[in-house]
Amino acid sequence: MVLVELATGTIVADPDEVATVLEPTADEAALHDAAGGNAGPIAIAFPSFTDGRGFSLARLLRERHGFKGEIRAVGHLIPDHGQFLLRSGFDTAEITDPEAVQVWKLRSSASATIISRPCAIPCRCAGMRPPRPRLRSTRCLARPTTS
Amino acid sequence: MYRYDEFDHAFVNERVAEFRDQVERRLAGQLTEEEFRPLRLRNGLYLQLHAYMLRIAVPYGVLSPRQLRQLAMIGRKWDRGYGHFTTRQNLQFNWVKLVDIPDVLAALAEVEMHCIQTSGNCVRNVTADPYAAAAVDELEDPRAWCEILRQWSTLHPEFSWLPRKFKIAISGAAEDRAATAFHDIGLRIVRGPNGENGFRVLVGGGMGRTPYVGQEIKSFLPKEHLLSYIESILRVYNLHGRRDNIHKARIKILVNALGIDKFREDVEADWEATHKDAIDLPEDEKRRIMSYFAPPELPERPARDEALAARRESDPAFANWYKHNVLPHRVPGYASVVISLKEPGRTPGDASSDTMDFVADLTERFGHNEARVNYTQNLILPHVARADILELYEALAGAGCATGNNELLGDMICCPGLDYCNLANARSIPIAKEIAKRFEDPARQEEIGKLRLNMSGCINACGHHHSGNIGILGVDKKGTELYQITLGGNPKDSASVGTIIGPGFRAEAVPQAIDTIVDTYIDNRHEGESFLETWRRVGAAPFKEALYGAR
């Protein structure tokens, strides 16, 4: 099991201990509690790689609950999730196969552009995008990822 | 029409490269078939009965001659020389090889086309009124909003792994020609309290095994909030839609389980908490996209109406075609012309590469370089000078494309059925051909008048049988194909789902059953009454009696 930093596709050498694990069924109260803890990373579980609820949860943590710490995806993940995770507000993904890191890196860097909206607002890329959102914007990959 | 800029080109080329890589990873065993499936699906690639099927997005049904010729080329080079226009205004190729798909995608990218999100559990190609910017009854062109939704929904970070597929349709006219009530979200552009345009929003419509007519979630949504409001609908669906049962995963099930009032409450609560400014489109960006959809310059042309009238007088075939396939245009001296893909004997919606090339030529000669795909599986030249209609008709008649059956019984919607599809339980194309043969006489169709006949080869309802005035559903009963008939469906305003009229029919008995239904309608109808009006007035009894009374 290794932790991939989504923005760079590199392995995080010394991962922080997860403070809260959110299941996909987490409600507003659970999100509020997790975000208010001001503790370490929040992990969001993906019981199946087709279960997209975690994307909404991450975005709500960023937008509604102002969470600025690390959001980590855990569970059944594939490299093709990478850019969706990143743009929904995730920072890291826990993957089972260390060999796959290269693919995660490739998939993360394969897109120089996105057509859809960028990641959750406000998030790390705030201030690096045009002041008003547009349908197209350069994705926020090049941005520093530490908060 | 919309033109790709360097951003779109780069984006689509990246998707082609990405899919090449995914195919390679699959072949190398790095992706399981289970993992590859959703990836190929969101590039429009299905595994069908005999081969892969590739579904190409035709955003809001608009095609340029260059695109038509490229599609014709793809059909010749990588398929068997034809394609199939679908009820989502898309085009499907049925015989493409997996190894060729990346090259096909690259060829599509050359003409600003792609297959992105034509399948999979994401927001699909947004459909629209095919007469946009031409129809007399149009309040506002819906295509710019479709394009905005296309760009917004493409690889959406939050909504690309939904419980199930998600379909949106927009109509900007008084008459609903986009079947909005049968979509996950149906949008109607309407006039608001202060004279400004906005959206009437329907949610939870759909076909499939559990058909529902969409319900109104918002009577008037200011246009500027379209994206934020749709995001709230999708968020409630993404978080609460069922994921345990594929047959209960569409938003219609959630809406009807919660009830529209509770669902609306949840959406409104989410929307209230949304930073709308961060999602809704800024005015300059909206204007930029709108500018691509300026109507074409249509120079003043003499209508030559006397010549048209004289020809109608002397040539019944022309008169029939003119009556049904030439529609009024909002610019005087112009018309919209329907090119029927429903000639008796051919597969509804199929177009050969030669036909595509031919239509491309016609758009250049007569059609201001634009063709449209109707969800009823015909092609349309939206802007034709009335002065050119005779010449256009000659060309169409010479190519066997002048069937004058638009919106008549012969204008059937039909899915590919068991001849191609691995979901199907029964054949649909051969049945459609038999029915077309039975009603081949234009005088008979004329006597019947407008009638929507839709047929699906399985419960998934790709052929929209639920919304047909007459609907036919092929089922498999103990190894025998059986055809269930529904009556009273309606895809337009006051939309309704058809009612099963009784026990199903064997394939060979279907044309006679349709004949009986049609005769019953004619016997019972009041002067000028449509099939639907008669059905709603007299109910099922006379039809049941006629179909089953003798049993």
TrEMBL record, chain A:
Entry-linked InterPro entries: UCP030820
Protein name per its UniProtKB record: DUF934 domain-containing protein
Organism of derivation: Methyloceanibacter marginalis
TrEMBL record, chain B:
Oxidoreductase listed as a keyword: yes
InterPro entries the UniProt entry points to: NIR_SIR_4Fe-4S, NiRdtase/SiRdtase_haem-b_fer, Nit/Sulf_reduc_fer-like_dom_sf, NO2/SO3_Rdtase_4Fe4S_dom, NO2/SO3_Rdtase_4Fe4S_sf
Entry-linked Pfam families: NIR_SIR (PF01077), NIR_SIR_ferr (PF03460)
One function term, GO molecular function aspect: oxidoreductase activity
Record's protein name: Sulfite reductase
Occurrences of domain Nitrite/sulphite reductase 4Fe-4S (ranges): 119-272, 413-547
Keyword vocabulary terms for this entry: 4Fe-4S, Heme, Iron, Iron-sulfur, Metal-binding, Oxidoreductase
Every Nitrite/Sulfite reductase ferredoxin-like domain range: 52-111, 346-397
